[in-house]
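RETRY 2/3 - previous attempt timed out on the joint model. Re-submitting the same 288-residue input unchanged.
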Amino acid sequence: MSLLKIASVPPAAVAPDTTVLEAVEVMAEHGVGAVGVVDNGQLRGIFTERDVMLRVVLRHRSPQDTRVGEVMTSPAETISDEASEEDALVHMVEHHVRHLPIVGADGQLKGMLSVRNLLEHRVDELARELHSLDQYLANDGPGG
Amino acid sequence: MSLLKIASVPPAAVAPDTTVLEAVEVMAEHGVGAVGVVDNGQLRGIFTERDVMLRVVLRHRSPQDTRVGEVMTSPAETISDEASEEDALVHMVEHHVRHLPIVGADGQLKGMLSVRNLLEHRVDELARELHSLDQYLANDGPGG
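RETRY 2/3 succeeded.
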């Protein structure tokens, strides 16, 4: 299964000259904690709520006057849409990141995968399995 | 196994009248994304990097002049140290939180459990299992 099926597609994205305040507004609108930083469709970096805290607030920078290009993480850790969910999760844990931009062979940003996407998908799967088991026990099981 | 064994203990914590900037400094020192807000040892709420972004930066509040007590999440979702890792993870996914303060029967904050704690512990366990399997194949296995 392609990771794009559980990622945010299209991903929230901003240009490098977007202000931090505007990027925060984009994250709030999308209900996400990270945006891709994109120039002509090419991924240049990632900007997250962790960056807002550590590179803007902690450094006494002004959210109105600071550009995302100055405080983003670049290059970003990325992943191919053909990787497995498990590989993506291990990659996130090992690199201490909560988001992985999904990038095509052409360097274009195609989606944004979060730990939350992976966990919610896994919980949904478990819920489906439990539901199937319930159905089995109600209809075809040993009864009782 | 007690969840306290994989959580941050003692947890990063601040008083309600701490400024947002001071709380961010505490989170940066501890390398974490959330602090417990504690009054006389009793948990009053939780303050996270998501709150920094959405309740401070997005709302044009000053990190120097805003108190954590004004922008924390209260009451916080909490968990008992006797819950299972799986229950904790499902609780986090369902409640859309990345941190769960571990609170004793007396309301005292004992630790802070993060999604990262749970995932790192799981990855460590898998690595140990793989190592045991390697040892088995090298020493006691069918050979080759």
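The mean pLDDT of chain B is 92. Closing ticket.
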